[in-house]
Design brief:
564 residues, Neutral Protease, domain 2, 2 domains, 7-stranded mixed β-sheet
């Protein structure tokens, strides 16, 4: 089913929804010739029926995967070699690998050198893509602060909602490190049942009108708020005023001063510091921030662009606010890991695209307005999955491809829901402890616990392997398999991708008959490398041998799917 309007086109820039980080430094590609040979003697053959799949641990088979001889009709298998580690690490989980194919004669596979992984260098932030990542890292540190403990123990405050025309001061990040703050005086332009929208008193002329702000506020109250709270649970109310404050300010615009040249703009953000009482520069209340129109910057901040982006920004950042409350203030634990936190916020955008009333969206097309950025990001990931993380390191710059992987995995996971495979709110609520008064699990452990609802005993290792296989079956329109897990259910990704980036499906696995095949590179947390093993009629058996550096941390696995 085609879910996007045919007129969708790739935007000149994609907004970065609040975050900060560091870049990976490129170090040499040295080799380590000392790895052992792979011996397939005694390893069972993996025999699958068409549509069948298996997840295999190379550590149990000396790195060997054996596929049987083909019959008269030939055979085709998809083999994804991936890292099954789903827990975030400061500099990332990764290890060099070497994969070799031979005709299966039970002989030892000769050792091959593998590329050493690049080392991480925690450098200064580069542009708006780094901003959100740094905020999430700072939030994890703040979860252990005295302010977090005080906020958990503080008695409820008496509700004093703001009124239209009332003024207050906000402390706003003055740079993409959020190491300095600027005081912004703002006036409440809209106060509704769930939100109070403040406009900076010194924004550029030609910006929002009072009617435009009121329309956005009414949209948040009537539609975005119930979508997020149904999917993720309720927010906190540490300031006792009964509403979420939204500050629209050119101090957000100032975080990306060169957006006219780069096309990259920070649209808005949430910072968990604001939920912590007694901490320096905390606004001690529920606040998120958005940019304002600036007629002097038509490339990145025209009124039409800002009005198009502001609703997706609200629904995205509100999930971050709910998550920090449920993990840190209610659960008393750590903030959610970045990869899963961002995946849930991008999934929130998709929920907006599916549930907001069409008349409230740009050109009446909500999926276009809310979800096209996810498709662009997902395309970037699938174009080179081995080059990007699913479980990005804490020092990541928060790349578009990583965000694409985060969303794709959450989208595929929600498709497994037994209650509602389109919205998947039973799974998302479980991942935020929405019905349990908070949550202490984070990252891969959180995903696995939530997934128990649809598959008893399932592990993250299995989920990751099935997801990687599903990423390729999107180009197999006639493909079916008994479990229904090796497919996306609610997106025809091939069709949707072709509307945002005309052309073929982006994922192109290596294709080989097996003997003589060589691949080497780096396995990154949650990601992997794809290969099609295509055997001609009556072709002999095939063996693959895998060697991985840092294997105990990378947790390499084979995911194997019989296509024909």
């Amino acid at each position: 089913m085609t879910l996007l309007h045919p007129a969708v086109s790739r935007r000149r820039f994609r907004p970065v929804l609040g975050f900060l980080a560091a870049t990976l430094g490129a170090c040499g590609g040295s080799t380590d010739p000392g790895q052992p040979a792979v011996n397939c003697d005694g390893v069972p053959v993996t025999t699958l029926t068409v549509g069948g799949h298996a997840i295999l641990d190379p550590a149990a088979t000396n790195g060997c995967l054996r596929l049987p001889a083909a019959g008269p009709g030939g055979a085709e298998h998809l083999v994804v070699t991936y890292s099954a580690n789903g827990q975030e690490a400061p500099t990332g989980v990764r290890g060099g690998f070497s994969l070799r194919g031979v005709g299966d004669d039970f002989a030892a596979l000769r050792a091959e050198p593998y590329a050493s992984p690049r080392l991480s260098a925690f450098q200064s932030p580069v542009g708006p893509a780094a901003f959100h990542q740094r905020l999430r890292e700072r939030e994890r540190q703040l979860a252990r602060s005295p302010g977090a403990a005080l906020s958990r123990l503080a008695p409820a405050r008496v509700a004093v909602p703001p009124t239209v025309g009332s003024q207050r001061d906000f402390q706003v990040c003055a740079d993409t490190n959020c190491g300095a703050f600027v005081t912004v005086r703002a006036t409440a332009s809209y106060v509704g049942s769930k939100s109070a929208i403040y406009l900076d008193d010194t924004v550029p002329a030609g910006g929002f009108t009072g009617g435009e702000i009121a329309a956005v506020g009414a949209l948040f109250d009537a539609e975005l708020y119930p979508i997020d709270t149904t999917a993720f649970g309720r927010e906190s109310d540490v300031d006792g005023n009964g509403v979420v404050a939204v500050l629209l300010t050119d101090a957000v615009n100032a975080l990306a001063p060169d957006c006219q040249q780069t096309g990259a703009v920070i649209v808005g953000y949430f910072f968990g510091l604001d939920l912590l009482l007694g901490e320096p520069n905390s606004n001690e209340g529920e606040v998120f921030y958005g940019l304002v129109p600036d007629p002097s910057k038509p490339v990145c901040a025209s009124k039409a662009q800002v009005l198009d982006l502001i609703a997706p920004t609200f629904i995205h950042e509100f999930q971050h606010m709910i998550s920090y409350h449920r993990h840190v203030l209610l659960g008393g634990g750590a903030a959610e890991e970045t990869w899963l936190n961002e995946g849930l916020s991008h999934f929130a955008e998709e929920l907006g695209g599916r549930q907001v009333t069409p008349g409230s969206c740009t050109a009446g097309n909500c999926l276009n307005q809310f979800a096209s950025g996810n498709l662009l990001n997902g395309y970037d990931y699938l174009a080179a999955p081995e080059s990007h993380y699913l479980v990005e390191p804490g020092s990541s710059s928060g790349t578009f491809a990583e965000r694409g992987a985060n969303w794709l995995f959450l989208r595929w996971l929600a498709d497994r829901s037994l209650a509602d495979s389109v919205l998947g709110t039973d799974l998302t609520r479980a991942m935020l402890g929405a019905d349990a008064g908070g949550l202490t699990l984070t990252g891969g452990a959180n995903v696995a616990a939530a997934a128990q609802q649809f598959q008893a005993g399932v592990t993250l290792v299995t989920l990751l392997g099935q997801w990687h296989l599903a990423n390729y079956t999107e180009v197999l329109p006639a493909f079916t398999e008994p479990s229904g897990r090796i497919q996306y259910r609610t997106w025809d990704l091939a069709s949707a991708f072709s509307q945002v980036i005309p052309g073929p499906y982006p994922l192109f696995p290596d294709s080989t008959d097996g003997p003589g095949y060589r691949a080497s590179g780096t396995l990154r947390g949650g990601s992997g490398t794809y290969a099609r093993i295509v055997q001609a009629a009556d072709a002999p058996a095939v063996a693959l041998g895998l060697s991985v550096k840092n294997q105990a941390t990378v947790l390499p696995r084979y995911a194997v799917l019989r296509i024909r």
